[in-house]
Amino acid sequence: MRGSDGRITIVVPGLGAGGTEHVVSLIANHWLVSGFSVTVITFETRGSVPYYHFEPDISIVRLNIPNRRSSSLQSSVDILERVRRLRSAIRASRPDFVLSFLTRTNVMTLLATIGMEIPVVVSERNNPALQPFGQIWNRLRSRVYPRAFGLVTMTEGALNYFPAQMRRRGWVIANAVNLPQGWQRRRGNNILTAVGRLTHQKGFDLLLQAFASTAARHPEWTLEIWGEGNERGRLEAQRDGLGLTTRVEMPGLTSRPGEWIETADVFVLSSRFEGWGIALLEAMAAGLPVVAFDCEWGPGVMVTNGSDGILVPRNDVDALAEALDLVLSDRNLRAELGANAQLAARKYRPDRILQKWDDVVSAALQSVKQGKSQKSRM
User: Fold this and answer.
1) 3-state class of 297 per DSSP?
2) Which distant-in-sequence residues (6+ apart) come within 8 Å of 285 by Cβ?
3) Do domains 7-176+349-377 and 191-347 have the same CATH topology?
4) Considering the entire predicted model, what is its pTM?
5) Assigned fold of 191-347
6) Half-sphere exposure at residue 244, Cβ-oriented, CA atoms within 13 angstroms
7) How far is residue 225's CA from residue 268's CA, in Å, rounded to a whole number?
8) If DSSP codes are grouped into helix, strand and coil, which group holds residue 30?
9) What is the distance between the alpha carbons of residues 201 and 140, in angstroms, rounded to a whole number?
10) What stretch of H or E contains 114?
11) Can you give the residue ranges of the Glycosyltransferase subfamily 4-like N-terminal domain (predicted)?
12) Cβ atoms within 10 Å, residue 304
């Protein structure tokens, strides 16, 4: 697909470490190479540095008004200021098409583009049924989402959550798997690895319970939980209380994207819910054996239980402990699961996934062309 000098604006809260930020970097770089002019707008403070690579010709606009804890009144004022600055930045970017990521940002983008004749596509990146937003945001979403040109989700289950009116122009696009170039295998140290923000959603408290149940049977294994978040203190206290201080490391963010795949020997996903679970897919693409809660949504789409990974009922700590015990005990099983996982992940290669994003752009720009044609005939 060639851009033909089209202009695309992408709106996302920030450009830190995470699955959404990763996909934004992939599609922004791809569309730039395809001939589009690409602007990425974030709410970050000026001077923030992206975790993932963006080509120099991509314009990154930071509105300098990040999320913060505040009173209800101040929060409302902040939202209005974000919408005002966002509207100004979108106008300045002169887009032919706007793509927004994550629910609150989607709502603000749709409010900011009221009165603009620009197709806006919003993308939900989590489980819309289980991710908590509060009544105000849920009400706003139900009011403004019908204004969107279209909706992108990562699974059919997430798309089906929305009413038929929203699904009339919907796309299901999984996250692409894009392992870092030049990564090297440094495995063999018996490291069980988990990756994600240290939040309630990711279920690391459940993982610690499960590991505690089986750790004594596998004294040669350690658990590494990569990521940062507001539950670090609570998780560290739980780890120490379970007597796992020397068995569980929480080293924070990797110094470069995907570094954890080099040293991991087994990957585990313990999330209570997911929009997709990109770290799980990255582990599979790297040939790692994986164990995961069959949470909604994502793992059940990626993993064929017993063939290229092990799925256990979500939130079932005992079942997770049993699965970990099985995989940590059996080197041959680990090798078989890892080899099959690497094959299964090929369907999520970037070229296949980016073609689907190109379809979204094509549909949006075609609608613009038809609108201009109709006006010229009036």
Assistant:
1) coil
2) 177, 179, 341, 342, 345, 346, 348
3) yes
4) 0.85
5) Rossmann fold (3.40.50)
6) 28
7) 10
8) helix
9) 23
10) none
11) 18-165
12) 13
Q: Which amino acid does the sequence have at 28?
A: A
Q: How far apart are CA 33 and CA 15, in angstroms?
A: 20
Q: Which residues contact 274 (CB under 8 A, 6 or more apart)?
A: 126, 127, 201, 295, 296, 297, 298, 299
Q: How many C-beta atoms lie closer than 10 Å to residue 330's C-beta? A: 13
Q: How far apart are CA 269 and CA 255, in angstroms?
A: 21
Where exactly are the structural domains of the chain? Answer: 7-176+349-377, 191-347
What DSSP letter does each residue of 166-220 carry, written as one string? Answer: HHTTEEE-PPPP-PPTT------S-EEEEES-SSGGGTHHHHHHHHHHHGGG-TT
Per-residue pLDDT tens, the chain, 378 aa: give them. Answer: 555 569 999 999 999 988 899 999 999 999 999 999 999 999 999 999 999 999 999 999 999 998 765 556 567 788 899 999 999 999 999 999 999 999 999 999 999 999 999 999 999 998 888 887 778 888 889 899 999 999 999 999 999 999 888 888 999 999 999 888 889 999 999 999 999 999 999 999 999 999 999 999 999 999 999 999 999 999 999 999 999 999 999 999 998 888 999 999 999 999 999 989 999 999 999 999 999 999 988 999 999 999 999 999 999 999 999 999 999 999 999 999 999 999 999 999 999 999 999 999 999 999 877 766 556 555
Q: Which residue is associated with the tokens 């963006």?
A: 54
Residue with tokens 């239980």: 305
Retrieve residue 242's tokens: 């379970």
CATH number of 7-176+349-377: 3.40.50.2000
